[in-house]
Design brief:
Blueprint (H helix, E strand, L loop, with lengths): L3 E4 L6 E2 L1 H12 L6 H8 L3 H7 L7 H15 L4 E2 L3 H10 L3 E5 L4 H10 L8 E3 L8 H10 L7 E5 L2 H9 L3 E5 L6 H5 L5 E3 L2 H12 L1
Parallel strand pairs: 1-4, 1-6, 4-5, 6-7, 7-8
Antiparallel strand pairs: 2-3
Length: 209
């Protein structure tokens, strides 16, 4: 019986891709990519996409810190994916324990959730996860909330989310409306691949029993 849902933020709850790319172009001082190039990047894991954009791995921590600061200044430009708020409300009413862990800052996540009347749906918000791997962040969430990994789903939109959750012992649920191409997600064999928020509600209720 799965009673706890741990959510990723960017690309799962928040439709922040365009803003993230705008910030990346500014930080890296590179021209915007074409729609065809963006489509190709979505098929790649984050680190490979970073190499395509010529981002040195050693500079990722600094770029991530600056990016969080820049997003803070423009967080009002970010909105939930259609149907996400309603899905969260239904999941909360169904008795699920819900948490967020993100590579974004806790402050940015909370500002967003509060602005869209979604903060009350979550029992904890944890920011600052590594952009390379979220395994440690997920394990920390489990420890801090005294959770059994077998009782949880981790819900994210990237291949790295699927991999990290699996390594942390949590069943990964991939969503098809975020950053990563759905086929790339399917190739990594998540527990489930969800196409729209309403399907997430039906899926979670079925798994809860």
């Amino acid at each position: 019986m799965k009673k706890t849902l741990i959510f990723d933020f960017d690309g799962t709850l928040a439709d922040s891709f365009e803003l993230v790319m705008d910030i990346a172009y500014e930080l890296l001082q590179i021209p915007p990519r074409t729609p065809e190039e963006i489509a190709r990047l979505r098929r790649l894991p984050l680190i490979k996409a970073g190499r395509e954009l010529r981002i040195p791995i050693r500079k990722l921590p600094v770029l991530l810190t600056k990016g969080r600061q820049m997003m803070h200044e423009r967080i009002d430009e970010v909105h939930p994916f259609p149907g996400v708020a309603k899905a969260l409300q239904e999941l909360k009413e169904a008795g699920f324990h819900m948490l967020v862990t993100s590579s974004n800052s806790e402050q940015n996540v909370r500002i967003f959730l509060r602005a869209h009347n979604m903060e009350a749906y979550f029992d904890g918000v944890y920011g600052g996860a590594s952009i390379i791997s979220k395994v440690g962040a997920i394990k920390q969430v489990l420890r801090r909330n005294r959770l059994n990994a077998a009782d949880c789903f981790y819900i994210g939109d990237e291949v790295r989310d699927v991999i990290a959750a699996s390594k942390a012992g949590v069943d990964p649920v991939a969503v098809a409306w975020g950053y990563q191409d759905p086929q790339a997600l399917a190739d990594h064999h998540p527990y489930a691949l969800i196409k729209k928020p309403s399907e997430l509600v039906a899926f979670a209720k079925t798994e809860k029993g």
